[in-house]
Amino acid sequence: MLSQWRSTWVASPNRSASSPMAYAFDAAGGRVFFGGEIAEVTPLERYRAEQPPVNLALLPVNGLRPFFGPRLVMGPSQAVAGSSVLGARVLVPVHDAHGHDPLSRLFRTNGTASDAVRLAGPDLLVTDLPTGERWESPC
């Protein structure tokens, strides 16, 4: 799908160097949105107001946050809502593997890919893709 692709940088509202970034990849077969560090749905709404829908969204689902401080990435409900805002037919959850390394003890999570599967409606296919596994979109 992405053999001949073009990417678009999608910045968060404050456009600072430390702000979360996302990318949209266009190819002849469709559009993919990668928002690996997105915490809120609002930037996706702004993006979608100016861009056509995407076929596939890769969004975080674990709601990672430090013990003291704001959430760093989306949880499952925000990922499902964000996919809907983007017009995606497929959601591939990311940030679901945290929790098995020593550094993860400094953070807490609030959700999994399984939660996103449960929350998704009939118009959204949530593909819980294990790390390292290859998958081809039916879209």
Strand tally, please? 8
Rounded radius of gyration (Å): 15 Å
Mean pLDDT: 80
Strand order of the largest sheet: 1-2-3-4-6-8
What best-fitting shape do the alpha-carbon axes yield?
Answer: globular
Percentage of residues in strands:
15-25%
Pfam families: Lactamase_B_2 (PF12706)
Domain Metallo-beta-lactamase: 15-95
Organism: Microtetraspora glauca
InterPro entries: Metallo-B-lactamas, RibonucZ/Hydroxyglut_hydro
Could you explain how this protein is built, in words?
Residues 15-95 form the Metallo-beta-lactamase domain. This is Metallo-beta-lactamase domain-containing protein. Pfam families: Lactamase_B_2. Strand 3, helix 1 and strand 4 form a beta-alpha-beta unit. With 139 residues, this protein is α/β, with parallel strands linked by helices. 19% of the residues lie in helices and 24% in strands. A six-stranded mixed β-sheet has the order 1-2-3-4-6-8. It has a two-stranded antiparallel sheet with strand order 5-7. The chain has three helices and eight strands, in the order E-E-E-H-E-E-H-E-E-H-E. It has helices spanning 42-50, 76-86, 113-119; strands at 6-11, 21-27, 30-34, 56-60, 65-66, 90-94, 107-108, 125-126. Mean pLDDT is 80; it is low at 12-18.
Looking at this protein, list some descriptive labels.
139 residues; alpha/beta; 8 strands
